Amino acid sequence: MSDAALAELAAALGPAGCLTGPAMTGASRLHDASGHRAEGLPLALLRPATGDEIAAAMAICHRHGLAVVPQGGLSGLAGAANAGPGQIALSLARFHGIETIDSASGAMVVRAGTVLQTAQEAAAEAGFLLPIDLGARGSCQVGGIVATNAGGVRVLRHGTTRDNVLGLEAVLPDGRVISHLNRVTKDNTGYDLRHLLIGSEGTLAVITRVVLRLRPLPAPPETALCALPDFDAVIALMGDARARLDLSAFEVMWRDHFEMSGGAGLFAERPPLVVLIEAEGGGLEPVLEAAFEAGLITDALLAKSGAEARRFWEIRESLHPTRDLDGLLNLDVSLPVAAMAPFVADCTARVRALDPAADCYFFGHVGDGNLHLMAALPGLDWQAGETALQAAAYDLVRAAGGSISAEHGIGTLKRPFLGQSRSADEIALMRAIKAVFDPAGRMNPGKLLPAQ
Ligand SMILES: Cc1cc2nc3c(=O)[nH]c(=O)nc-3n(C[C@H](O)[C@H](O)[C@H](O)COP(=O)(O)OP(=O)(O)OC[C@H]3O[C@@H](n4cnc5c(N)ncnc54)[C@H](O)[C@@H]3O)c2cc1C
């Protein structure tokens, strides 16, 4: 049966659109950035170039009962885009481009395979800000950020991806197209299917086109790195900065992360905490002076040029780390801001109990209550270390009233732990929703929803 399906797919998509065997690995890396791999290759890697080809491919897979795994830029950190043997990997990479920029409405229609940075640059050329931004901007795709409801570094001011999507088009598992490329802000026309698809991690449908909300292009922001004595000072500084500035980012780094990411030596003393503040509309210097006088900061570096501001961001995004980040385990959780410092202390203690030689690097979008941990547990096997790290940390997250996934999604990585953040009734409703979109369970199986 798979031979017949592959023949139909090859006929519908042409040689560049339907790859099998070694040709697949030559064309793409097939797994995401989580470090997780499926065991074995998928049946085929499809690379449709048009919306019609995507719909045709889905209809063929439907007729032949094949499971489909949508793939965007493969920058995901939850294993959600990995396709295994017998499955079809459906890459959106060839379906890219900006279709329309509607200056009057402040909206752009973008194909799902468009790399985020390409969409950002097109918006800027038209005089707008596309406010979604994350470290993987050069590889993640618009469809991928919608499917994961990506957060990133501008959530504080402009919200998550969910807050910046006006309309969507998607192909259902049987090949039908649902198109609601809405450009208006107000649209109360019944259940909002858009919000079900945002964050669905490819388990309901293939997102093909997205209408993104655009904002006026702001003047270049002011950016500073601040040294702080403790987390109480972080909370106080954030309150003050929120009240007095148009904050666009408020990012915190614990010392080990700051130094490992290239910040060592920037401050005369080695501060326990460093905050990167970015403010649109100016006014940052007097706020920093007042914070210095109040003892909230012990030192600050105000960027004097765009290049210096970018350098500060490169530290935050660990672009020039002093160690290899590839083998590190990643955690991404949400916590009430007041619970962050106790979480860091308790989590570090638990991790060191698992492996006394462990290294822990904490940082996060503290303005959104989002904390990341990169950890090395050299004494444990990678997979065992990851499971033990998650179990240790998610207990603390639940006790603090947080979420086990702030922005990276669930994928395969957090699937066994979904019950830590969502009730059994909620998970049952999610299963029911999935069954409506995907009665045969062929969309990205084995992801997001826990095994039954
Ligand atoms: C250096 C780095 C920094 C990062 N920073 C952030 C950050 O600040 N905030 C954040 O939220 N994430 C961050 N991430 C994680 C990742 O970039 C995001 O999850 C991103 O949204 C994934 O997009 P992608 O196109 O790479 O999707 P993929 O990894 O290819 O896929 C992710 C999921 O989306 C599904 N999917 C992809 N395209 C489609 C489609 N067209 N239709 C339906 N489903 C689809 C896949 O099936 C999978 O479930 C970072 C990753 C890296 C490597």
Primary descriptors:
single chain, 452 residues, alpha+beta, Uridine Diphospho-n-acetylenolpyruvylglucosamine Reductase, domain 2, Uridine Diphospho-n-acetylenolpyruvylglucosamine Reductase, domain 3, Alpha-Beta Plaits, 4 domains, seven-stranded antiparallel sheet, five-stranded antiparallel sheet, binds flavin-adenine dinucleotide
Secondary-structure blueprint:
Elements: H1 2-13, E1 18-19, H2 22-27, E2 44-46, H3 51-63, E3 68-71, E4 88-91, E5 98-102, E6 107-111, H4 116-125, E7 128-129, H5 142-148, H6 155-158, E8 165-171, E9 177-180, H7 193-197, E10 206-213, E11 215-216, E12 222-228, H8 231-244, E13 246-254, H9 255-263, E14 273-280, H10 284-293, E15 299-302, H11 306-316, E16 329-334, H12 340-354, E17 359-365, E18 370-376, H13 382-399, H14 424-437
Parallel strand pairs: 2-4, 3-4
Antiparallel strand pairs: 1-2, 5-6, 6-10, 7-11, 8-9, 8-10, 12-14, 12-15, 13-14, 13-17, 16-18, 17-18
This protein binds flavin-adenine dinucleotide.
Descriptive overview:
This protein has helices at 2-13, 22-27, 51-63, 116-125, 142-148, 155-158, 193-197, 231-244, 255-263, 284-293, 306-316, 340-354, 382-399, 424-437; strands spanning 18-19, 44-46, 68-71, 88-91, 98-102, 107-111, 128-129, 165-171, 177-180, 206-213, 215-216, 222-228, 246-254, 273-280, 299-302, 329-334, 359-365, 370-376. It has 14 helices and 18 strands. Strand 5 and strand 6 form a beta hairpin. The relative contact order is 0.12. The chain has 4 domains: 2-91, Uridine Diphospho-n-acetylenolpyruvylglucosamine Reductase, domain 2, CATH 3.30.43; 98-216, Uridine Diphospho-n-acetylenolpyruvylglucosamine Reductase, domain 3; 222-316, Alpha-Beta Plaits (2-Layer Sandwich); 329-420, Alpha-Beta Plaits, CATH 3.30.70. The protein is globular. Strands 15-12-14-13-17-18-16 form a 7-stranded antiparallel sheet, with helices on both faces. Strands 5-6-10-8-9 form a 5-stranded antiparallel sheet. The protein has a 4-stranded mixed sheet with strand order 1-2-4-3. Bound molecules: flavin-adenine dinucleotide (FAD).
